[in-house]
Amino acid sequence: MKPLHLLVVSSVLVLLCGTVAAKPWWMRGIASDDTDFLPPDSAFRVSAHTEGDLVHIRWVIADGYYLYRQKIAVSAESPDLVLLASSWPPGVPRTDPYLGTQEVYLQQVDGTVRFRRSDFGAHPMQIKVTYQGCAEAGLCYLPITKVLFPDTIAPVTAAPSHPWEGVAIISGLFAFLVAGLLLRRGRRLDLPAT
């Protein structure tokens, strides 16, 4: 009975020590949900698409995180791509202990950049975005740089229809029927003898 009792006590001690040692020494006594930070790609999800001569860039920002407006930069990566004026919505003012008063974006931000291409679409479009953000719990990420391949959204347009298009289709069907009847006239269908 003693070996079994010793086994149970040692198992409990190993489990207790394992749970205490699972946290690093600088996090002991601190609730882990306050200091667990998302990876930058999860905190600031960025995507881009083109529409006409505009590139639309969108960041979806996780709760508890913000993106600095002044730290957003967009540059061309494709050959013969020229980026022109960019447009960003106003941000929310926030006083940062290190950078002073800054405009930041919360939840999401959509910006546009006008572009011109001299290669007429021969190369895939690539843009480089650089941005920086922080977590409200106190972690500021280093500047993040990504190369994006914006998706092209084709404008949805209906085929142009002429007012006489329906009449032309019906006339063509009628002419086909008349031609078939004229070719049939005078012919007999010979049925096989049974």
Can you describe what's shown?
This protein has 194 residues and is α+β, with helices and mostly antiparallel strands. It has a domain of 111 residues: Sandwich (Immunoglobulin-like). 25% of the residues lie in helices and 35% in strands. The strands form three sheets. The protein has a five-stranded mixed sheet. Strands 6-7-3-10 form a four-stranded antiparallel sheet, with no helix packed on it. It is elongated, with a radius of gyration of 34 Å.
Give short descriptive properties of this protein.
194 residues, alpha+beta, 5-stranded mixed beta sheet, 4-stranded antiparallel beta sheet, 25% helix
Chain-wise SSE layout:
Layout: H1 2-21, H2 32-35, H3 40-43, E1 44-51, E2 54-61, E3 65-68, E4 73-76, E5 81-87, E6 92-96, E7 100-105, E8 108-117, E9 127-131, E10 133-135, E11 144-148, E12 151-152, H4 165-184
Parallel strand pairs: 1-12
Antiparallel strand pairs: 1-2, 2-8, 3-7, 3-10, 4-9, 5-8, 6-7, 9-11
The helix-and-strand class reads alpha+beta
Tally of helical runs: 4
User: In angstroms, what separates the terminal alpha carbons?
Assistant: 102 Å
Extract low-pLDDT stretches.
12-27, 154-158
Q: Can you tell me the CATH architecture of the domain at 40-150? A: Sandwich
Overall 3D geometry? elongated
CATH fourth-tier homologous superfamily of the domain at 40-150 = Thiol:disulfide interchange protein DsbD, N-terminal domain
Percent of residues in helices comes to 10-25%
| Lateral arrangement of strands in the main beta sheet | 5-8-2-1-12
Q: What's the count of strands? A: 12
Mean pLDDT: 76
* Rg, Å, rounded: 34 Å
Instruction: Quote the CATH topology of the domain at 40-150.
Output: Immunoglobulin-like
CATH C-level category of the domain at 40-150: Mainly Beta
